[in-house]
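re: ur question from earlier - yeah i can do the single chain one, its not a big deal. heres the input i used so u can compare w yours
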Amino acid sequence: MTKQVNLGGNFALPGTSITLNRMGYGAMQLAGPQVWGPPTDVDGAIAILREAVASGVNHIDTSDFYGPHVTNQIIKRALYPYSDGLVIVTKVGARRGEDKSWIHALSRKELIDGVHDNLRNLGLDRLDIVNLRVGGVMWPSAGSIAAPLTVLAELKRQGLIGHLGVSNVGPEQLAEAQSITEIVCVQNLYNVALRNDDGFIKNLAGQGIAYVPFFPLGGFTPLQSSVLDAAAASLQVTPMQVALAWLLQRSPNILLIPGTSTVKHLRENLKSATLQIPPETIAELDSIGEDPGSEMP
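and the output i got, formated as tokens:
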């Protein structure tokens, strides 16, 4: 398959030699239901990954607690040995309970074990980028992140990690993180309907730091809006394509990692990178944003 010419342009991560196409791929949906166990169609999951990379995607977001271990093992099976320029971004800071719950894993041992689990299951000697995942299930929680980030900074100095990012943080926590090590990306909840980070994104853009929205299409509760539906109808595309294109036009430092478990939806997601939304439609879409303010769960 011929690589797509336009995947939303590209973005150079600060202080690195890494330049990423702005449209990436999130691997969470490659695991089974509730991000637990293997998918029903492993060969189909492998085909999605291979098509994504063949289409020009050069960054994949994953974690060893997806499955657990499942998505990383599928990535290795599909893509190893990895092509030059392919960047695998993983995260640590959580683990899965036997009841499929999501549990913090922020002790020194848990973080070190998490990094080594990612290395082993991806078949790597060094992880390109590791995000420290903190906070609640969806939103940041106040408090210092110095202790866990210091552990990852040590592993970076040892050569096990190339670069570090943070996930589910606020501006004060980013500033604290930057006093410990260089941060190349922030991964928070953000989409056309949930826009609590508008100001944060602008601040990050000024610093040249990538902002990577998780759940860009709403996650476990897909986005629903009559405004989004109307925009999609007028542009003759799907509502999800509009939602992704809106993000790419929102700020040049936004990188996308939409996930899917079908090749059809992968192709639709990639096509959204070529969609230009006219200004009047952008204004209409901006009107549906919400600010959860102090009521964040």
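Confidence is low (pLDDT under 50) at residues 291-297. not sure if urs matches, ping me
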